């Protein structure tokens, strides 16, 4: 689209609102203050410092060039579609400018005889040399060329680059350029000054290292990245300090229930489980709320650690609540934990949205009276009607599946105005730099060891054309006494379509394997129906379980040792890893077959290769971060953190370390407080609340 493109002029009466309109468009981009505009840095640059003649541009074909010429012809054609063709010429040759989208005003603006400067990629089309949708300017003969690279900014609807450039230039004339960092820190870290760095990024001189600018490795970019990371670290660490000022009930007792629970377990805790349990126990004894993230690969035994944390709360005279994102996962937890605890005299209540009203009220009454010492459920736990007598500990499983508001609601149900301790669990391991950057206000415990007796899962990647061979393999495994999961493809556009695929796959397999029991579970089934099929599978009455991704987490059937995932190319890495974790839970050798549809795109190829090469959840998480970037990895801001705009965690990990150390030093030095306030005001401008979990 041409740079000087004008929208239809508003009616004369509306003219005074033009500035307001631009303001609201800027606000939609989050640009509300002068400093917001100044920190709205270019995403790339165009070199408009040179004009070459049309003949030279044609010889360079395929490259971006800037030419200048007189319009010799301007026509609108309708084949194959409506488009405007503008012919321009200089002394050396002629060139076409082709516009598929254009305004009536542009045809008048680019009238014959007009001098135009156009920049774009020159291609040799059917009718000769052309630029499609170049940026252009109407100029007078001898008009001076820019002396610096032209910035191109992230923009929004109705905001042209010239409007953004003017708004940013105006803001730069008004802001307070005082550096928020003290000179000794700037010198020690060999950083650019704030004002020179920002001015260079908005107006890079001709002699600048263009590669360093494009790669964001220029010292001016380093200063911006450091400032951004420092603001984030300061904010998260302040949130952590503020949490420590809040009161929580110390859950100090590790008493008779905990001792009886551990004695009744049919296995010993692994070294890693014992280590993280001690970290959690130490936190629970404190008079301020624990905020700990328990990470562990699929099948590493997080549930038993969470149950032992709950026994410490109950031993101390308080209640515990465990919230899971799906009913099937919540029910798995309920069956397992209630099976451990009820024989020891603990009352465990079950609360989900699908319960009948009478059952819901009964479960709520048990929580409110304190009779239920442990309450397990889904989002139903956070409803206003659900109250607790003495809630001391909140456990949130697959915490990234819940929004920040949902987690806070449960935290606000603490006893006597105190904040309950919070233990969050995740089977999606978070790479170190990501944990340091986005979870800097949490303590992180990692179970980095699988229970003994687990066999590694072998993963094979197989073309969909070999489906018949896969069905034969399923038959052989079932006849050998093994059970099989068959996971249907993820169809994001339509749950109904996904359901249809699962139903059709179930019918196909039932017909192909008449001597086997083939079961089916999907998200639309009633919880009781779903549980009936799952129970039959657990009891080995069902040989093959056809399922949608409802079995992604929490399902534990040690005899299941073969998994088939159809259309594996449609799933993300973390989901594939979670699904694969449903097998390999017993002593039999386990196999996961990833069926894919050719041809594969580059990202799908990377994912499937990663799954074939490793079963290590931390390595998979690292590669997933590489492929998707932090925004998507964390679930599109749903955990409440602002995504980084300038720093890249893959390449700038060293800066994260430095920003963390500087934040710690500033926060613990009374003389550093003015620096902290000024820096946070500049970079977060009152949006600090947004960063708090």
UniProtKB/TrEMBL annotation:
GO MF terms, alphabetically ordered: 3'-5' DNA helicase activity; ATP binding; DNA binding; hydrolase activity
Domain Helicase C-terminal: 480-626
The reaction(s) this protein catalyses: Couples ATP hydrolysis with the unwinding of duplex DNA by translocating in the 3'-5' direction; ATP + H2O = ADP + phosphate + H(+)
Top-level enzyme category: isomerase
Tree of life domain: Bacteria
Entry-linked Gene3D superfamilies: P-loop containing nucleotide triphosphate hydrolases (3.40.50.300)
InterPro entries: ATP-dep_DNA_helicase_RecG (IPR004609), DEAD/DEAH_box_helicase_dom (IPR011545), Helicase_ATP-bd (IPR014001), Helicase_C-like (IPR001650), NA-bd_OB-fold (IPR012340), P-loop_NTPase (IPR027417), RecG/Mfd (IPR047112), RecG_dom3_C (IPR045562)
EC number, UniProt record: 5.6.2.4
Swiss-Prot/TrEMBL GO biological process terms: DNA recombination; DNA repair
Location of the region described as Disordered in the Swiss-Prot/TrEMBL record: 1-23
Annotated Helicase ATP-binding domain residues: 283-447
Family annotation (CDD domains): DEXHc_RecG, RecG_wedge_OBF, SF2_C_RecG
Alphabetic keyword roster: ATP-binding, DNA damage, DNA recombination, DNA repair, DNA-binding, Helicase, Hydrolase, Isomerase, Nucleotide-binding
Low complexity bias: start-end ranges: 7-19
UniProt-listed NCBIfam families: PRK10917.1-1, PRK10917.1-3, PRK10917.1-4, PRK10917.2-2, recG
Family: Belongs to the helicase family. RecG subfamily.
Its biological purpose: Plays a critical role in recombination and DNA repair. Helps process Holliday junction intermediates to mature products by catalyzing branch migration. Has replication fork regression activity, unwinds stalled or blocked replication forks to make a HJ that can be resolved. Has a DNA unwinding activity characteristic of a DNA helicase with 3'-5' polarity.
Name of the protein this chain belongs to: ATP-dependent DNA helicase RecG
Naturally occurring in which organism (per UniProt): Pseudoduganella umbonata
Record lineage: Bacteria, Pseudomonadati, Pseudomonadota, Betaproteobacteria, Burkholderiales
Gene assigned in the entry: recG
